[in-house]
Design goal:
53% helix, 13 helices, 346 residues, Rossmann fold, alpha/beta, four-stranded antiparallel sheet
């Protein structure tokens, strides 16, 4: 189909070029016979489009009649050719789009024991990338057109719709899925998606993201198996979990910590804390620059300025300075790559 589309595009370009060349020669020919440019152009357009309002000037010489006859034959032929190519090109584009959506829907129908990602924002795109790297089967649900196109261009199975609708979740195969991650930017939307998903599949593993701590309880009540609050994960707390297990229980119970780690592993992810060293590759860069430099193999969910004792959710423009603690989430086994960024360059 692709070669056919390219062939039709060439025909379309050739048709436009042919009509323009014929029209240009006709205008010059009329002007050569003493007509003004405006009159010559007007006469050419009337003839090519077969409108037939009448001659601008009397065609009282053999040369003018020959020019007009030639313009009628070549111009009308060119317009017929161009119109046919244009209709075929538009029709083929619509057919290709229809076949593409049909093929994608069939692939989604064949999914089993897969993961459903609700939302293709920063977190959702990262999950999709890492699940693909882990060869897990998944489908993305995204209502935003631009993000849907982005997901489709990256080769992901995706549905352009609102995941809060039960019919959309059914279309994504929620009855056959093993896990659902709802990571849209709206807490109410995450709660509603969780509620709908749980009602459709009582055994589904649902991992929900919340922006505000007050949302955590609502998500659990809606049926979430676990809740992640990346905006409020403190670098100091996570470092304590990793470096000082004996005091981690003061911050968070071992059972809940293990559950969180298990939930992340289900999605092929892990959390790690590093410190930006003086002279390291990412010290002084913004969050966006660091993630881009790492080819989106992880994303930064919290930054603690050195000595502040407070971790905050970073904006893409947040700058990481030497001594800052950085909490990152990335694919299991690959998060340690970030250590190379934190080590001072030799």
């Amino acid at each position: 189909m692709k070669w056919l589309s390219n062939s039709l595009a060439r025909h379309l370009i050739l048709g436009v070029a042919f009509v323009l060349i014929v029209a240009s020669i006709a205008v010059l020919a009329y002007m050569h016979n003493g007509w003004s440019f405006a009159d010559a152009l007007y006469m050419t357009v009337l003839t090519v489009y077969t409108v037939g309002y009448g001659e601008v000037h009397p065609l009282n010489t053999p040369e003018l009649r020959a020019i007009t006859i030639t313009l009628m034959v070549l111009g009308c032929t060119g317009m017929i050719y161009l119109t046919g190519a244009l209709v075929q090109f538009i029709t083929l584009s619509q057919i290709q789009q229809m076949l593409g959506l049909t093929r994608m829907n069939k692939q989604i129908e064949d999914l089993d024991d897969h993961v459903i990602i609700c939302g293709f924002g920063r977190t959702g795109s990262m999950l999709a990338r890492e699940l693909k790297a882990g060869k897990a089967r998944f489908v993305v649900i995204e209502p935003n057109h631009d993000r849907f196109v982005e997901a489709k261009e990256q080769g992901y199975l995706c549905i352009h719709a609102d995941a809060a609708e039960e019919s959309v979740l059914k279309q994504a195969g929620i009855e056959r899925a093993r896990a659902l991650a709802t990571v849209v930017s709206s807490d109410p939307a995450n709660v509603f998606i969780t509620l709908s998903a749980r009602s459709l599949n009582t055994t589904l593993q649902i991992i929900a993201r919340g922006e505000e701590p007050s949302t955590e309880k609502k998500l659990f009540q809606a049926g979430a198996s676990s809740v992640l609050l990346p905006a409020h994960i403190g670098a100091e707390q996570i470092a304590s979990m990793i470096l000082f297990p004996s005091i981690a229980s003061v911050i968070q119970s071992p059972e809940r910590r293990r559950q969180m780690e298990l939930d992340l592993r289900t999605l092929g992810l892990e959390i790690e804390v590093v410190v930006a060293a003086e002279g390291s590759a990412f010290a002084g860069l913004t969050v966006e620059e660091i993630e881009r430099k790492a080819e989106r193999s992880f994303f930064i969910i919290a930054v603690e300025q050195g000595g502040s004792g407070k971790a905050e959710r970073p904006l893409p423009s947040t700058r990481v300075n030497p001594g800052d603690g950085v909490t990152i989430m990335g694919r299991a086994g690959r998060a340690n790559i970030l250590k190379k960024f934190a080590e001072a360059a030799l």
